[in-house]
Design brief:
Number of helices: 17
Structural class: alpha/beta
Shape: globular
CATH architecture of the largest domain: 2-Layer Sandwich
Strand content: 15-25%
CATH class of the largest domain: Alpha Beta
Strand order of the largest sheet: 3-2-1-4-11-12
Number of domains: 5
Oligomer: single chain
Radius of gyration: 26 Å
Number of strands: 30
CATH topology of the largest domain: Nucleotidyltransferase, domain 5
Amino acid sequence: MLKQEIRDRMKKIGVDTGGTFTDIVMHTNDSLFTHKVLSTPQNPAHAVIQGVGEILHKHDTTAEEAEIVHGSTVATNALLERRGARIALVTTKGFEDVLEIGRQSRPDLYDFFVERAAPLVPAARRFGISERTLHTGEIQTEIETDELDALATQLATLEPDAIAICFLFAYVSPKNERIVAEHLSARFEIPVSCSHEVLPEYREYARFSTTVANAYIRPTLERHLSTLIESKQFPKSFRLMLSNGGSVSARTFHGRSHAENLLYRGESAGIGTVLSGPAGGVLGAYQIAKTAGYNQIITFDMGGTSTDVSLCDQGISLTTESTISGLPIKVPLIDIHTVGAGGGSIATVDTGGALRVGPESAGANPGPICYGNNGENITVTDANLFLGRIAATQFLGGAMSLDIHKPRAYIEKFASHLGISPLQAADGILKVANAAMERAIKVISVERGFDTRDFTLVSFGGAGGLHAAFMAENLGIGTVLIPPNGGLLSAYGMLFADVIKDYSQTVLWQLEKDSDEALAKALDAGFDALLTRAENEMKTEGFTPDQLKVNRSLDMRYAGQSYELNIPYHLGIGVTNPSHNIGAEIQTLVEKFHAAHAQRFGYARTDAPAEMVNLRLTAIGETDKPPIQAVPLADTDAAKAFTIQSPVIFEGEALPTDFYRREALQPGNRIAGPAIVTE
């Protein structure tokens, strides 16, 4: 059978595991099918297997015909809930407490009762070993075999599930880390994470924290994958969504020998799967918005537990730093800001008598009161239903009916406690939630020098459509785009995920100290080394070097600064391209940095020397993507989509409101408000 015929038979499926629902989207023969099942937090793989099995059975498809991209919350939840592996840390003697000391920054400077989160590795499982690598890469102190044997004996008594190895300056020379990793891998049948592979960059605390987090989640992720792979309803080969907007084969994580596990790269390691679900949403939103002609968008993903927002200015924004549950995680990921406000967020009254919403959530079980699962906490969904903004019989497309009576008694009691009317209480819950989400959007836009009025708000997630218009009004945004099947957009976006791997290397080059020619040679050599790694690893994903798209960039800063900006680097500088004016091209690169600094911080120090801190290379293997079909415009009459008229509360007033079915609306239809569109 020809490859094209095989490709035509394949069904591409995106699976997104959320806190409340697990979403499945299947594309086949230019048709799109969707499915939702309740998540199973105790074992997320069960909901994934159930949902995929049901959609395959419904459309008479076998697991062997399915090509799946799976966005997993397993890694994120392991960090948030501190339910990861029992791990040990091996580091340079005298630096066992780097994780405990952390940074000097204090997130709650004026909180007298602040409690620091405990490190993932307690002191009893942190071991120092006599070794020293200098900042030049010279090995000053070699690893002694006797000390290594003694370390292995100590570790054996602790029975760890995984080991993290983090030595000083291992990103310059990984020799000592490799010696210890090989020795411990031969002794223990458990994953070993090395800092020079997970994050070959300087800044000890971030490197230690990221490597330890990778070791912490890896056994949990492998168990999740084992459950999927061992199921007869799930294909043996599938891809995992990454937080950088790409995906990699599950083989990267599962079914490899422990010797091979030593060789996996940080960009393909378990830590790269954190926030993979929200990354799928941004990817899907950007693809749809770009097709519709919108290149400047703010994505607004409001789910059951939290809301994720991201700004895309002519492209998807990436960052290399994030914090999860107080832990610095330094891996490439889509720049997403999250707040604890979602459809399941719980309304409470604090000790000062003020109304608060979130971050606590009712989750999938018991869920909001209106779900009828014995929930007793008022949520944003209950408030929307109380005000008439949700059609109780049309929830989940009619697959689930909501109890419109039960939340009323709880809201009346809540309002009495606040000394206001029930309508004011419900409206106040929504306004507080909207304020939290509005602040989140300002963090990624106004605080970074962007004007929200220049952007289109792309709303999705199960609860996004209920709040998008209010958010746009408050932020001065003139256009709101709500894609079809917005509640499943994260799963849909995964269908567009290419195979992407990121590579980096700290260099710390000062431009004023190096000649242009010497700098050009160093750039060529540095990027060539990263490219060789990328080509070798992408072969295991099925891509030859000539099939790869390669993006290069540099982290740059002014001398003396502590943080960097990422500047695209186009291959043209260097001795391999002697026809170019090397000096002029380096100057152009510096000018791009000045411009980026002015955009981000409002000023540029053009007289100050610049530094190149990290080299970054991204290798992309493009995958087949579902087409986004254009539909011809119809007339303005939306009468065929009209269902009922019902009173809905807006600003304390009951207004007659028309309800429409999204599926019956045609492009070009116009609706007079107030109106609610159900889907």
